[in-house]
Amino acid sequence: FKYGSGTGSNFSFLRGEGEKLSGGGRSSGLMSFLKIGDRAAGAIKSGGTTRRAAKMVIVDADHPDIEEFIDWKVNEEQKVASLVTGSKIVKKHLEAIMKACINCEGQDDDCFDPAINTALKREIKLAKKDGVPENYIYRVIQFARQGYTSMSFKTYDTDWDSDAYLTVSGQNSNNSVSLKDDFLRAVEEDADWHLTARKDGKVLKTLKARDLWEKIGYAAWASADPGLHFNTTMNDWHTCAAAGAIRASNPCSEYMFLDDTACNLASINLLPYRNADGTIDISAYEHTVRLWTMVLEISVMMAQFPSKEIAKLSYEYRTLGLGYANIGGLLMTSGIPYDSDEGRAICAALTAIMTGTAYATSAEMAAELGAFPDYDRNAQNMLRVMRNHRRAA
């Protein structure tokens, strides 16, 4: 995409590992497909005049492979730690063994015989104690016997773009677990939680909901993933529920809607609306919101979409994505802490004004141009969401 994008997919329809296939045999499982997608995303690098879409992977909490999915990045991070630490330990010992060989004053092959060269014997013992593979130990001795005074051994670091991270999987997406309220209630009540087959709903494994919750928490602490999708709440605020459920979002999660849809995003920089006395020019802000709601509506006809189905549904539902940026800059310029009641109140007020103004502008455009094609079927859902806003206010 020329100007950047993000895509989210829920892979929960894929069978778990070991589930029967209709044509015979058993499924290789969810993770085998996710790893293929991860490698593909890693191979398609951003550069030039285009960039690869950011990628969100979502899996439902009752999927048979959910535990492996949760642990995915934890295990891969541990592999990186092992590569970084292990490579440096091995190099240190190989250099010490080489030094013991070449600094020896023995005759002929005596320097390469640990039974005679006590320094070499000591270094071999230390290397084995730290788990250095024996083939590398004896390889460096052979190098020294041939007259070499050094041996190349690459070490790794924890830079996010380093070779260490390039060798492990799971580094090309944000991962999230989709939870419904029934799971959260099971956590509260310390109840059982069932992992179910994808085709017939048969219970394949039962575990404590709190154990799965603990696993999610630990994984997020250890590797920053997975995030959470509160699916019940997402669908409580779904304006087009008659057309299907919300199952996924883009990586930043500001766009949640039907499968195979997309929207163009625009962000309003808040800082220019701050007056010299610290107040906010609400009139100008509302005007900008109104203007950009219309611009985004027009952009539906101008956008490029990755598939025919996404283009068709985006045209029919005319989804728009308007937000704001630089709330941190606005608060800091005003001397207001980011994490404060006052800061949150300003953020809430600006969000409410944007939402209300955009809704009103959308209604005005619909009065002139007509509502989107599937409005009648979803009119009550839209009113339900408006009532949600009223109750939340």
Largest β sheet strand count, sense and barrel closure: 4 strands, parallel
Count of folded domains: 2
Q: What are the segments in which pLDDT stays under 50 over at least 5 consecutive residues?
A: none
Strand elements, count: 8
**Average pLDDT across residues?**
92
Give the overall form. Answer: elongated
Percent of residues in helices comes to: 40-55%
Given helix and strand content, the structural type is: alpha/beta
Query: What amount of the residues lies in strands?
Result: 5-15%
| Biggest sheet strand line-up | 1-2-3-6
Distance between the termini: 38 Å
SSE string: EHEHHHHEHEEHEHEHHEHHH
Continuous helix count: 13
Q: Rounded to an integer, what's the Rg over CA atoms?
A: 29 Å
Question: Could you please describe the fold and organization of this structure?
Answer:
The protein is α/β, with parallel strands linked by helices and 393 residues long. The protein folds into two domains: 1-225, no CATH class; 260-392, no CATH class. 48% of the residues lie in helices and 11% in strands. It is built from 13 helices and eight strands. A four-stranded parallel sheet has the order 1-2-3-6. The chain is elongated, with a radius of gyration of 29 Å. The protein starts with 5 loop residues before the first strand and ends with a helix.
